Structures are given as C-alpha cells and as structure tokens.
Amino acid sequence: MTNTLDSSQSRTVEQPRRRLHVIVNPMSGNGRTQRAWPTIDRRLRRLGFDIDFRMTESRGDGLRLGREAVMTGVDEVVVVGGDGSLNDVVNGLFTATHGEPPELTVSVLPAGTGRDFSRNIGLKSFEHALETLGDGEVRALDVGRVDYSDVEGTRSRYFVNAGDVGIGAETAALINRSSKLLGGKISYFLGAARTVFTFQGRVAQVRVDGALVHDDKLAMVCMANGRYLAGGMLMAPDASMDDGLFDILVLKDVPKYALLGSLLPSVYLGRHINHPAVTFMRGARIEVTAPDPLLFEVDGEQPGTTDIRVTMLPGALRVRMPRSR
Q: In order of start, what are the domains of the chain with their CATH numbers?
C-alpha cells in the first residue's frame, strides 16, 4: 500500500507521550540514586516520556505511594530502586486493591544493591531497562502472598521474587543492618557466611499443598518465584515466574562445615539442588509452623516470624519486561 503522507506532513505529526508515574527511592544503591536522579529524569524526558515522579522519604513511603498510584488511576508505575523498594510499592498496590490484581503495569529501573528481580525478568543493565521502557512487552507474572500474625492480628505481605525462613531470613536481617558498599553479591555472601556461624537449626513442620514434607530440625525453607535471590544466588535454577507454582527448597539442619564448604559456594551455580540435605518440590501453598518462632523474609524484607501460610497468586501483576527474542 502506498503511503500518501509526504515527508513534510510526517514531520508535523506529534507522537503521543506515554505518561509514567515514577516512584524513586533516593537511598537505594547506598544513596547513589539520589545523586543520579536528575540525569535519569532528563533522559526519560528526552526519550519522550511524560514524567510524574515521587520520592520516598521514610520507611513505608513506598507502600503509601503505591497505594496512591492505584487510587489515582495511573496506568504505569516505574520503580527506581532495589528489590526492597519494589516490594514496598507492590504491597501498596495490593493493599489498595484488597488483594485483587491491580489494573496497571509495573516497570523497573534497577538502582539497588541486589537487583534480583531485574535479573529474573532479563534486564541486563540500567541502559537495557531504559530501552525496555520503550519497547518492552507486558506480561502477567505470579505474586506470592504470605499470611502471618503479630500482636496486632493477622497480616498479609506480598512478594514478587522469593521468600524464605531460617538462614536466608537471618542473613537478610543482618544485611539490612549493615552497609552494602561492597555490592550485592559480596555483601550477601559475607552476610550468609557470618549467619552460618551463629544460626542454630530448629524444629519446624513444612506442608506443601496440604502434605507434610518435613518435621524435624531445619536450616531454611525457600519459596522461590524467580530463579535468583540474595544478590545473585541461583537458588531455583528452573523457576518460572508465570507457571503458577513456587519452586520450594527445604534445607535440613546440617553441620556448619557442610554449609560453608559445599552448599553456600554451590548455590551461585545452582548445583545445590541435588545435595542430599536439600529437598526440592513445586507447589502453590506452603505452611511453615514451629514451636519456637523463626524469622521469615520476602524480597529481602522481614515482616515477622512463623507461623506462616504462603499462597501463589497466578498472573496477578502486569510487568513490563524485555521482549522475547
């Protein structure tokens, strides 16, 4: 078909500018995001986006701003920060919808330390994330929900990447109290090594889709939606973020030399799956109960302790990610 629009006419056609609601955590990346934001803002506007941005200022702001994004009817939320920043915003979205899938798209410009979610969806760099904002595809990804109780009653927390109980949660707590100047991979490795020396395995019961799969001392239970966690550990090598199932790993209580000598190094290559102390399975519902409470974490955040009930919400979050080649 012949194009009847000549070159002079085509230059007068103004392309619509896509509006982005941007939530920025200036303290992500040990404060580097705050210094870089003016440059990021200019680049987004040069790329043709109409930017409406909000800065988080204190703990809980991400959740509040995510909730406000839903209430004001925005079409797309861009999170500039790390996995914890994304977790806060996502929880704000689901709080506003009372647990129903929010009717908006989430995009990520990775600026934190771990960047595991970005790694899981195929973002190779910050530059790649900028490109993806323009030409990426939107896919419905699964979301996990953990229900637990504290002194104020029953609560829910949502997560997009992974949750765990035991050593992983204790490590995340240590990392959050420490500096991450060494970067995600080194910081998490050193944190995990330090945690191994002090952690004591405790008795817990683990049920997957109603079946009892563990009733003994354990070191960790991991419920993975994505393949990577903790700054690049390949915890669940075959996990899919849109299959409606968690990849679940139960690590028995083992001697410290086994954790440090073989298990911890091998997890970066995904070779821990076949270790005799690791039980692997897939499921949509997990319950972890323990006589003595164990700390749990989701996407690096620690909302509370066991007992917990974890449920998969299939296709509950629309995420902009690189196109499949």
A: 15-112 (3.40.50.10330), 145-314 (2.60.200.40)
